[in-house]
């Protein structure tokens, strides 16, 4: 698990460099309308997983915790080929429908269904079988190529045409799919027969449909605020809110290594004590990760003044991530590893309904973009509480709950009251005090582990 986290974290550092450059350069130099169209396309892409109807999720559950060398190569090739044909048909049907609607953005989205979902399918496979180096490589290539595409259009061609940028994303996905197809064809070189297996299609969809709905419901929950902003507010509001979300997504650079490796790990362990210990690590990790908000605030103060009005939104989105990190790292992975997809799905549906009502109520009270970020924050808290109450065998002690509550309050106060530099100092000092009071033993274990890892040069232990 340690190796997996480090491998993906190193890969995500490169991802962060390109992501930061793209995240700050595009909104700086593109028109607000162009930026809004690009973010609308990316919002559409967050729902593209629906079009495989749970097939990729079924594969993910089937291969979770296994090794590539132990898999039946013929069966695996059939699984991949069936997904290919299935998604190709879906993509063609959607392109035809989009052409009839005469919506260029929908046409580009429909074209990308096949490429995007197949690349995601391979990434999920790498996650499930613990091939974290391969997973990281795919992420790095896609991120780097998207960056190059964006910078060529911005700096060389000097285009403000949103559809050219969107087309760049589509081309990159298909290029990555081509590379992955060649790579896997070498693995299956001895297996000559490729067939579309209808029973394979139905079996994977049947096994993965509830997990798909759960993941889809989670996407609805986390993207609901953007849909409300897009429908009810102005284009400028949507662009500013989307910018805030893109900044929030930088947290995935640190979060993704944990959420991905934990699934493979939790498939193998059953110790409740160990799971609780992992959650305590995540609590401290989340508290430390919140410090990344203050450099973002500093950049907005001196560089991106036209998006400075998104700062309050960013604050609440960052605060909500404190809960989401714990939920996604521990509880969601636990539901998946225990094959409790139905419970996960029902839980997320409840949170969605609560979140929808919160967004409507808060918008009625104050019709502004900040209302939706507050709704997201409260929804995250409610989901966290539901997870605690639902998974009875690993319920946290009072000191763990107090640590989480105090940390979130300290972050919000530091973010709103002080400027970026003073807020950074205040948050770090108070966080260290909270760790000393509530999480001292866990912090000592984490520090010892880090020092031993450095001493033993690269996780030899």
TrEMBL record:
InterPro entries: Poly_Biosynth_Transport. It comes from Lachnospira eligens. Keywords: Cell membrane, Membrane, Transmembrane, Transmembrane helix. The chain crosses the membrane at residues 7-30, 36-55, 76-98, 104-122, 134-157, 163-182, 209-229, 249-266, 278-300, 312-332, 344-365, 371-389, 401-418, 424-451. It is found in: Cell membrane. It is a multi-pass membrane protein. This is Polysaccharide biosynthesis protein. One of its GO terms (cellular component) is plasma membrane.
């Amino acid at each position: 698990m340690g190796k997996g986290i480090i491998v993906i974290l190193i890969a995500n550092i490169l991802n962060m460099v390109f992501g930061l450059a793209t995240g700050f350069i595009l909104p700086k130099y593109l028109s607000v309308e162009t930026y809004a169209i690009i973010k609308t396309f990316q919002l559409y892409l967050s729902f593209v997983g629906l079009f495989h109807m749970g097939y990729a999720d079924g594969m993910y559950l089937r291969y979770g915790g296994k090794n590539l060398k132990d898999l039946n190569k013929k069966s695996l090739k059939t699984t991949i080929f069936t997904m290919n044909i299935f998604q190709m048909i879906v993509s063609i049907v959607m392109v035809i429908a989009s052409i009839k609607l005469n919506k260029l953005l929908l046409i580009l989205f429909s074209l990308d269904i096949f490429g995007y979902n197949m690349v995601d399918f391979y990434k999920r496979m790498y996650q499930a079988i613990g091939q974290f180096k391969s997973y990281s490589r795919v992420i790095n290539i896609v991120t780097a190529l998207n960056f190059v595409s964006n910078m060529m259009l911005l700096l060389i061609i000097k285009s403000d045409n949103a559809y050219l940028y969107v087309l760049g994303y589509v081309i990159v996905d298909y290029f990555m799919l081509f590379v992955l197809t060649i790579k896997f064809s070498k693995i299956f070189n001895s297996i000559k027969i490729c067939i579309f297996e209808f029973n394979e299609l139905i079996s994977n969809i049947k096994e993965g449909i509830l997990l798909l709905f759960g993941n889809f419901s989670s996407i609805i929950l986390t993207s609901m605020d953007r849909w409300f902003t897009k429908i009810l507010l102005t284009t400028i509001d949507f662009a500013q809110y989307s910018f805030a979300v893109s900044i929030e997504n930088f947290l995935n650079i640190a979060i993704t290594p944990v959420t991905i490796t934990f699934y493979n790990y939790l498939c193998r362990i059953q110790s409740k004590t160990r799971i609780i210990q992992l959650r305590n690590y995540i609590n401290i990790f989340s508290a430390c990760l919140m410090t990344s908000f203050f450099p973002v605030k500093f950049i907005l103060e001196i560089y991106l003044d036209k998006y400075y009005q998104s700062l309050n939104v960013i604050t609440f989105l960052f605060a909500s991530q404190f809960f989401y990190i714990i939920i996604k790292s521990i509880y969601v992975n636990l539901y998946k590893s225990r094959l409790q997809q139905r419970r996960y799905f029902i839980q997320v549906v409840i949170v969605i309904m609560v979140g929808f009502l919160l967004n409507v109520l808060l918008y009625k009270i104050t019709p502004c973009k900040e209302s939706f970020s507050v709704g997201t924050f409260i929804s995250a808290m409610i989901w966290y509480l539901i997870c605690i109450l639902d998974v009875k065998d690993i319920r946290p002690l009072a000191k763990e709950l107090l640590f989480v509550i105090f940390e979130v309050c300290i972050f919000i106060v530091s973010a709103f009251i002080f400027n970026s530099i003073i807020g950074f100092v205040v948050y770090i000092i108070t966080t260290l005090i909270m760790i000393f009071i509530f999480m001292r033993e866990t912090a000592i274990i984490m520090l010892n582990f880090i020092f031993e890892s450095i001493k033993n040069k690269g996780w030899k232990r």
